[in-house]
Amino acid sequence: MAETPDGAQERPVLALDRIVKEFPGVRALDGVELELHPGEVTALIGENGAGKSTVVKILTGIYQPDGGQILIDGQPTAFPTAQAAADAGVTAIHQETVLFDELSVAENIFIGHAPRTRFGMIDRAGMKRRAGEILASIGAEIDPGVRLRDLGIASRHLVAIARALSIDARVVIMDEPTAALSQKEIEELYELVDTLKAQGKAILFISHKFDEIFRIADRYTVFRDGQFVGAGLMRDTDEGALVQMMVGRSVDQIFPKRESLLGVELLKVVGYSHPTEFEDINFTLRRGEILGFYGLVGAGRSEFMQSLIGITKPSKGVVRLEDRIKIIRSPADAIDAGIVYVPEDRGRQGAILDLPIFQNVTLPSLGQTSKHGFTQLAEEFALARKYTQRLDLRAASLDTHVGSLSGGNQQKVVIAKWLATRPKVIILDEPTKGIDIGSKAAVHDFMSELAAEGLSVIMVSSEIPEIMGMADRVIVMREGRIAAELEGDALTPETLVRHAAGIGLKEDAA
Amino acid sequence: MSMTESTGTGRRIPDQLATPAQKALKSWESLLLLVAIGIFVLNSFASPYFLDAWNLSDATFNFTEKAMIAFAMALLIIAGEIDLSVASIIALASTAMGVVMQAGAGTPVIVLVGLLTGLACGGFNGFLVTRLGLPSIVATIGTMSLFRGISYIVLGDGAFRGYPDSFAFFGQGYAFWVISVELVIFALLAVIYAIVLHRTNFGRAVYAVGNNATGALFSGIRVGRVKFILFLLTGLMSGLAAVCLTSRLGSTRPSIASGMELEVVTMVVLGGVNILGGSGSIPGVVIAAFVMGLVTFGLGLLNVPGIVMSIFIGMLLIGVVALPRLWKLMRR
Q: Which CATH number fits domain A1-89+169-250: 3.40.1490.10, 3.90.1150.10, 3.40.50.300, 3.40.50.970?
């Protein structure tokens, strides 16, 4: 039994005991512990991929654990459905709650569990009254009768919160609740959290921002790679200790880091900006270099990369490749220039799942395999074979649909597709996300090989071991800007996390 | 992994597991061909007049004009778009031809005006969809009313008559013996479209766009351009159909080709093109054209009225599309 900040002994209202959750090829949660106490805010801290979202899904009945137990008031229980979790008083305020524009505020709050009259009809008056009570309890001055479309963003957020609280919650989960809010709205949210605390609710607060964790949390729990690392009271810890817990990993993955022989400067990006997503991005890339881009989710890395290949238009900025200015208005232009992009969203952006492997591989290279615009199947199979074989693709045939392959093999097809265009620069966005360990290693090996052959690689990754293991140099982005450029001794897990989260650095990396 | 696997270059993945012939045998097209043969045999038993060369030749006029449009429409639907204004494009193109005919233009100019009107209408549809980003089904329902509306304004209750004799060549002429000019145009277009869709980079891009437009864009396909070209082609084919139909009828009324857009779409879907885009073939559309032509002609010989015929075509469409799905459900 943990000690409360007030020094009293209190039993957690909800606890997770050695919870295990496995997905094909990955152990997302490996025996994690978590305790939530009434009237207290517990911050759940960890890197991207530490298992925070998986825990939220288990607590709200969306995922079922493969081991361990959930305890409510010390009693083992199970949440087979989202309804069961709601009935037990667990509710979540998500980053983006789905609301209905054409319905009233009260209807939005009670959708799915509206109060009924004796005759089974929706009790409109009762619903409106209770909606008003809930809104008042969180200090929101919103008329429950108005249609949602007439409200502003901030009020909508309050409606989403009221909806989460409409089920008489004992445990409130807030998953990055401030991600989309302005400073004023954040202050209002803090006040709301204080109100909920005073009402005796247990709050699980997930955030990447250390300042707000220290502002409102009473306790912390740290996860790393799906494992429980530690927990305690906020007043007994500091930023340094938390960062250390988040990143201080045992390096159990071996990265094929080679001695890099960097060539001449190949790519130079100057002043790349976008009205909303990123601003003033400057960097250079040398031949044979692997340049890492690290940052939190939403730091603008993918948006910048997609702008670089012509998907979105930058507001200003210049790309120079081999000392020539390149104007890139579409991916076709980027391919012509020799810059290719392996997107994070494989199913939607990377591959065309219902087309066969060979057609996926040759799609950007049809100019190479065809004659006067007519396709030549033999050439296509030869090209597809050449590059998929190098990546050790496993498939029944080259005519197999990409959608029937495993995630790792799909990724190999996508990478093969881009290598077949013989690019100068290849951008890999989260290249090993969601693929099995074996394929991961193959992709890493391959990246090293490519760099050794003189190809320049930009690797966007949120996995610290991958960044540390693969990159020669790392650019850290925060809120759409470059926060730091790190290499050599300055490149450590701690500096990465500090720059990404914007925590003050004692000794700045020169 | 229990067995030792060689890594790297040791294993060889076969190109294809089934040969193209094996694939063709199991395809939708071969099923449809069976249906076509079945209807042919049934028809020859049902009416003694069916197996007559001139009667069969007449039957082809039931589908040649629609099929011209259906080829381009097939590509458009495979690419994930649709054009419901094709029949109205025929009306507008035919009206434009009538106007220049009355002004004294000769056959070459009349034909050119018909084709260019079709091209312009297709370009307008393409502009609405690829530049303004309207959903094609909405945009072309709009232009369906717009194009035919212009026809009505120009013609009112009237009609254009008096096309030059040489203009009759397209809809009434014969290349040799019973083979009509329209049938020759149909056959040529079938070959051209089959090559474009199945043997060119452009055809590959059409499939890529229809399966996953985002993925195609990321792969360097100029998605907007591909779609615009397809709208242009569909408009041009509608213009060509307008030339043939106007020539065959010898006159232009604003109600010309009313409702033909649905018959064209029916032909395309019957031919195995996925209405949601991504798959389909030109041979399928060719066979579907024959199936629809044979059914209407056979029923016509039996003096079945037009309304009943459309019921028949509707049932045929649902039946042929639903059967394979029912078959799958039953085997589960």
A: 3.40.50.300
